[in-house]
Design goal:
Two copies of one chain form a homodimer. Chain A has five helices and five strands, in the order H-H-H-E-E-H-E-E-H-E. Chain A is α+β, with helices and mostly antiparallel strands. In chain A, a hairpin with a 4-residue loop joins strand 3 and strand 4. The model of chain A has no long low-confidence stretch (mean pLDDT about 90). At the A-B interface, helix 1, strand 1, strand 3, strand 4 and strand 5 of A face helix 1, strand 1, strand 3, strand 4 and strand 5 of B. Strand 3 of chain A pairs antiparallel with strand 5 of chain B. Chain A binds a DNA duplex (17 and 17 nucleotides) through helix 3. Chains A, B: Pfam families: AsnC_trans_reg, HTH_24. Chains A, B: InterPro entries: ArsR-like_HTH (IPR011991), AsnC-type_HTH_dom (IPR000485), Dimeric_a/b-barrel (IPR011008), Tscrpt_reg_AsnC-like (IPR019888), Tscrpt_reg_AsnC/Lrp_C (IPR019887), WH-like_DNA-bd_sf (IPR036388), WH_DNA-bd_sf (IPR036390).
Chain lengths: ~150, ~150
Amino acid sequence: MQIDDIDRRLLRHLLAEPDLSTTDLAARAGVTSATAWRRIERLREAGILRGQHAIIDWRALGWEVEVSLRFTLDKTDPRAFDEFLAAVREVPEVIEIQTFLGRVDVRLNVIARDMRHYQEIYRDRILTLPHIADIESLMLVSTIRKTESLPI
Amino acid sequence: MQIDDIDRRLLRHLLAEPDLSTTDLAARAGVTSATAWRRIERLREAGILRGQHAIIDWRALGWEVEVSLRFTLDKTDPRAFDEFLAAVREVPEVIEIQTFLGRVDVRLNVIARDMRHYQEIYRDRILTLPHIADIESLMLVSTIRKTESLPI
DNA sequence: GATGAAAAATCTGTGAC
DNA sequence: GTCACAGATTTTTCATC
């Protein structure tokens, strides 16, 4: 799909202020609301805009612990990889899964209410995942998603 | 703040389908829209709901490369850490920053249009960051945010 | 082929209960 | 927590460039 300056302005403002109404977004991008609406719709159809994400503060909800786990698997075949990922999806406390090129290497972010709870999840849900050769854990202090200042 | 079952249902549905109108959300949670609205407002004031995030498909926009970089800094003092983070914030291609406990250790996710562009960013914007002792790079294949299936 | 103005459909936010 | 409603917003239509 072709993207022009108006689309770029719309995307930039949408990323900076996702709660904006189409009317206000249009005003900021210097077009009418009908135009803004049609273009947003087109970006959505093209798969560039994939909807919204509600941001939840886990800590405010009482989930104090977030840990980033990095796995090395003990096999390199795709089936082992798929089995591992399928098992991971069954663990609700895993809120993010990342896979990488060039290694049998996966990263998971796990949340827990507190350290005791985390130890439980780790023992019962993480260590029991299939095909694990090695795990490295890092306690997360903060995550900043910088999607306000996009390079578009 | 106290969270009850209705709040939990609202949050769960909001996470699963963030584009839902308050009316539809209310219907799914089994309350009227006025109730849903007031509770959402309360969750917002309590800092549990922190607004929305527009999801963009970088690949559809022509940003083909995402790399996860892990840094070890050469100093352990807080000032070096802050200087490093301040410099990172100036790089628009860095879309995520994570900091960890127990190490002078930071992770960044960087996007680029293609490998050539990534090499440029790496050489001119990453290697020039202050206080770097070591960098490890992993090419991202996929990120799945599993926030649909929350443990609440 | 895309735009703006304006109308129609829908939703949000508030007051009364 | 529900119901009702005015005001705002979203989405469609249509004439125009």
